[in-house]
Amino acid sequence: MLDEKGFDLWADGYDRSVQLSEESDEYPFSGYKNVLNAVYRAVHAQKQTSVLDLGFGTGALTAKLYAEGYAVTGVDFSERMCTLAQKKMPGARLIRADLTQGLPKKICGERFGTIISTYAMHHLTDPQKETLWRELLALLLPGGSLVIGDVAFETEAEQEACRTRHEEMWDDDEIYIIAEHFKPAFTGLRFQRVSHCAGVLTINNDCERN
């Protein structure tokens, strides 16, 4: 798993690395553009104008929303990623913070129409994910949604099949979303499979939380 320094060094070549992985239909970025498109469409479906993006990276997705007039707040733990994204979104509010340490205090108590995250949640353990998601749901405006795209699977069996297929490349330090693990805690959680190693998870703030 890359640490903050590793992400800073990788930042300038990140988009190209993703493209090569996606074009070859390889883990971990097979389906990457389709994941971003699915999250993009989910934001538009909300008809809200404020977006919180957790782990925005170089701003590949968020910059499009910003250009369309969305009020963008972003959180990422790489200083270099923040610098690259800020150039694309000079008026966006970008915060450098590590989500494994919880939400930054600067955004606690604020409200957003949609909260999104792409390819960032795999850095958190399952308990950390559940805690963070509950905190995020409390930040949503009425009718808002939390939309997460990542290396993700519906079941453990699907993850194991992917692990076997890409055994030499598999990163055991990353903790991928398995939707069936979270459905008991978030009634109404929806999972959309995008590729053999990617999916989009959606939780509305009106979903029952057990």
What is the structural class?
alpha/beta
Sequence of strands across the biggest β-sheet: 3-2-1-4-5-9-8
Largest sheet, strands/sense/barrel: 7 strands, mixed
How many beta-strand runs?
A: 9
Please, what is the average pLDDT? 88
Question: Which radius of gyration do the C-alpha atoms yield?
Answer: 16 Å
Q: Name the shape in a single word.
A: globular
Terminal Cα span: 32 Å
Number of helices: 8
Provide the helix percentage.
25-40%
Order of helices and strands: HHHEHEHEEHEEHEHEE
Bin the strand percentage: 15-25%
Uncertain regions spanning at least 5 consecutive residues: 1-14
Describe the 3D structure.
By secondary structure, the chain is of the alpha/beta class. The protein contains eight helices and nine strands. It has helices at 4-10, 14-23, 32-46, 62-67, 79-88, 126-137, 156-165, 179-182, and strands at residues 50-54, 71-76, 93-96, 112-118, 140-150, 152-153, 177-178, 190-195, 198-204. The strands form two sheets. It has a seven-stranded mixed sheet with strand order 3-2-1-4-5-9-8, with helices on both faces. The longest helix is centred in the first third of the chain and has 15 residues, at 32-46. The two termini are 32 Å apart. 37% of the residues are buried. Residues 1-14 have low confidence and may be disordered.
